[in-house]
Amino acid sequence: MAADNPVAAWTRGKEGDDYMLRNATVELADGNTTTVDSLPLLALHAYSVERVDPDGSVWVRNPHGPGNGADRGNLVRVPAGDFDNVFYQVNVGGL
User: Fold this and answer.
1) Are 24 and 35 in contact (CB under 8 A)?
2) In which region does residue 31 sit, left (phi positive, over 0), alpha (psi from -120 to 50) or beta (all else)?
3) What pLDDT is stored for residue 95 in this prediction?
4) At CA 94, angle to CA 45 and CA 3, rounded to 5?
5) Does residue 2 surpass a pLDDT of 70?
6) Which positions ≥6 away from 79 have C-beta within 8 Å?
7) Distance (Å, rounded) from C-alpha 50 to C-alpha 9?
8) What are the residues whose beta carbons fall under 8 Å from the beta carbon of 34, sequence distance 6 or more?
9) Could you give phi then psi for residue 79, rounded to 5 degrees?
């Protein structure tokens, strides 16, 4: 897979049945990270996959960007152990 291919992941669930990440790590626009007690990932929603850490954690971004009501458009770290529980489909563009 080429590094420049866009990757999207779709969340599980049904509308209104959001997945709540506890003690979520969020990367802010200035590059700093913070931890929030809980952060919703919207059910039946596509997220842009921005990067994968060596430990398998996946950083995703809501494509609605800054100002969206769920996560303000920041990068959100999904721990490797939670990824399969939250997302059901991944698509790599350009393949």
Assistant:
1) yes
2) left
3) 55
4) 90
5) no
6) 57
7) 10
8) 25, 26, 28
9) -55, 150
Distances, alpha carbon 15 to alpha carbons 12, 19, 53, in Å: 9, 11, 29
The number of residues making up the chain comes to 95
CB 81 within 8 A of CB 67: no
- DSSP-derived letter for residue 83 is H
The pair of structure tokens assigned to 34 is: 């913070």
Are 53 and 60 in contact by the 8 Å Cβ rule? The answer is no
pLDDT tens digits for range 4-39: 789 999 999 887 788 888 999 999 889 999 999 988
Split at pLDDT 50, 70, 90, the class of 1 is: very low
pLDDT tens by residue, 55-79:
999 999 998 888 787 778 889 999 9
Start-to-end C-alpha separation, the chain? 8
